[in-house]
């Protein structure tokens, strides 16, 4: 399986240091091994996606193992489904993707990681050579119709239509989204009234919901870990200086996690 050209959607042929389509559009491989398939004209900002600060904070936090139960739960689903091709959408710095790749390797399959943030993909590719990483937008995935056995989407945007296009009939999408109480103690430091995430059941056009599990566990964080957690979330920019100071001084900040993990099966009939 190969990438598609983001300009003309023809297959990209791998060369030694680049990928080239029949029309001659060329995309060079970076020295870290990833390829940037996000043409300037498709960018909505100069540096789309999560910032470098968010990415560095997320790497420190995930490396400490605080979200390992989430990774383990998705790995367990993958062990059972045994896909031989997997795409992690919005893979960030690659912590989850690398875990999934170990399972896909058992089938001698391929794991792909995609994110719109170049800085995150650079970090990911540098550390995890077993994954094929690309910079691209989830609004137009650089993959052929019905080419993937499985897609994982952890807290990342992607339209149902695009997922339905790339997943094979009978293939799966695994989504992880925040449950009602996710990080509510952290939010309590920032908002006067903490609104619980909605627990409404979702739907994904073209897919049948097959499994839903809620995973939650308590975390006790040291000041620097709590600061990293805040930095990697979208509510960081709302936090007043007092909040950052208070978190930095924490020795045991208690915070709940709450994730909803769903497995969606691609319908087989057209
Ligand atoms: C909340 S982060 C989750 C990262 C990773 N899955 C994790 O949980 O650690 C969302 C990720 O989606 C990426 N992202 C945002 N918009 C995107 C888009 N349109 N296409 C691809 N990735 C996108 C961000 O750069 C970021 O890395
Ligand atoms: Zn092309």
Report the bound ligands by name, code or SMILES. S-adenosylmethionine, zinc ion
N-to-C CA distance: 23 Å
One letter per element, helices H and strands E, the order comes to EEEEHHEHEHEEHEHEEHHEE
Q: What's the architecture in CATH terms?
A: 3-Layer(aba) Sandwich
The total number of structural domains is 1
CATH class: Alpha Beta
Number of helices: 8
* Rg of Cα set: 19 Å
Say how many strands there are: 13
**Average pLDDT score:** 93
In CATH terms, what is the fold-level topology? Answer: Rossmann fold
Structural class: alpha/beta
Question: Which stretches of 5+ consecutive residues score pLDDT under 50?
Answer: none
Strand content: 25-35%
**For the largest beta sheet, what order do the strands appear in spatially?**
4-7-6-5-8-9-13-10
The geometry reads as globular
Report the CATH superfamily: Vaccinia Virus protein VP39
Main β-sheet description: 8 strands, mixed
- The level of helicity is 25-40%
Protein name: 23S rRNA (Guanine(745)-N(1))-methyltransferase
Domain 23S rRNA (guanine(745)-N(1))-methyltransferase N-terminal: 3-46
GO molecular function: 23S rRNA (guanine(745)-N(1))-methyltransferase activity; metal ion binding
Organism: Buttiauxella warmboldiae
Describe the structure.
By secondary structure, the chain is of the alpha/beta class. It has a single domain (34-266), classed as Vaccinia Virus protein VP39 (Rossmann fold), CATH 3.40.50. It is 30% helix and 26% strand. The chain contains eight helices and 13 strands. The protein has helices at 52-63, 68-81, 95-106, 118-127, 160-166, 184-190, 223-231, 241-249; strands spanning 13-14, 18-20, 26-28, 35-36, 85-89, 110-115, 132-135, 148-154, 167-178, 207-215, 218-221, 253-256, 259-266. The strands form three sheets. Strands 4-7-6-5-8-9-13-10 form an eight-stranded mixed beta sheet. The protein has a three-stranded antiparallel beta sheet with strand order 1-2-3, with no helix packed on it. A hairpin with a 5-residue loop joins β2 and β3. S-adenosylmethionine binds next to loops. Residues 5, 7-8, 10, 21, 23, 25 line the site of zinc ion.
